Amino acid sequence: MSSTFGNYLRVTTFGESHGGAVGAVIDGFPANIPLTAGVIQIQLDRRRPGQSSITTQRDEADTVEILSGVENGRSLGTPIALVVKNKDQRPNDYAITNTIPRPSHADYTYMIKYGVTAKSGGGRASARETVGRVAAGAAAEIFLREKFGVEIVAFVSSTGDVSVGVDSGCSVNSGDSSSKNRIDINTITRDIVDRNPIRCPDPQAAESMEKLIKRVRDDGDSIGGVITCVCRNVPAGWGEPVFQKLEAMLAQAMMSIPAAKGFEIGSGFAGAAMRGSEHNDPFTRGGGQCPPAAPLATKTNNSGGIQGGISNGAPIYFRVAFKPTATIGKEQITTDYQGNETVLKSAGRHDPCVTPRAVPVVESMAAIVLADMALRAGYN
Prior knowledge:
This protein is of the alpha+beta class. The chain has helices spanning about 35-45, 105-115, 130-150, 190-195, 205-220, 245-255, 275-280, 355-375, and strands spanning about 5, 10-15, 20-25, 65-70, 70, 75, 80-85, 150-160, 160-165, 165, 175, 185, 225-230, 260-265, 285, 295-300, 305, 310, 315-320, 330-335, 340-345.
């Protein structure tokens, strides 16, 4: 079950990075939801490699095919199988992993657990596994938008030491106050996010981020970053009060993404430095800021749209930190499987920074969690 996520909406991904195909099977998807390969393809195009000079130059169209569960543009309520064929495989680029486990990769831990590793760029540990997540998440998002009007938008809010200010719209400001234009999570759209290859809505910050990524790439190195995500129009009442808390499931989903190393929701770690009188979100009658149409609303949103593990109707917003890409062009002194010191220079094609292409992955995992919670809440 390690490749399956969800309880009521169950998503199973399959395939290796340089195998024949990757994809997903969605079980529990409601019937009669409009669904086509073309709509799913929009998100896959945002994730695919080779989009710009700052992403891996692996040449994959990532064209999705729906094998089952959909007829005449409508879901049948039966399992939906989605497949994307791999076209530009180069497994020989990873022959060195037969004898040397790559630093900060899964080569060593997979060998210890299974006694064998996929000799194809990390196999299931590769970020190529996220193709299935994005395809399934795109379908989940259609369900959420059609039935509830949910909107999910993610964007790059920092790369290395370059960051952009983020305004929750109904809370104290968060993020880097040095940014001239703060990003309002209540108005940000994907069209705005996609105006540059970094997927940062602040043009000035995006330009600085792009220069930084190119600089570390040319140096044979990599850099990490942070993605901020907002989920708007999520009805109050989704989530469970103890072990299936909505923020806990979001955290699990985000931390399962390759290279993810940190998760915080609402005020996050900054809230630890605040007093309760500053951090509490007082209630107000309908017409308050978060959200305007709710019978009861909150004046602020330090909770990030979730209280007691259950959505309160305010925008859900969170941040995911991604480490620098583990595969780099620099020579590294490490040790082979026999314990002998050696020098490793990795081959293969990789992103110098994962965050621009991870934006749709974060959105898709959020959609899968929310769709699962919608079904748990009793939608039929």
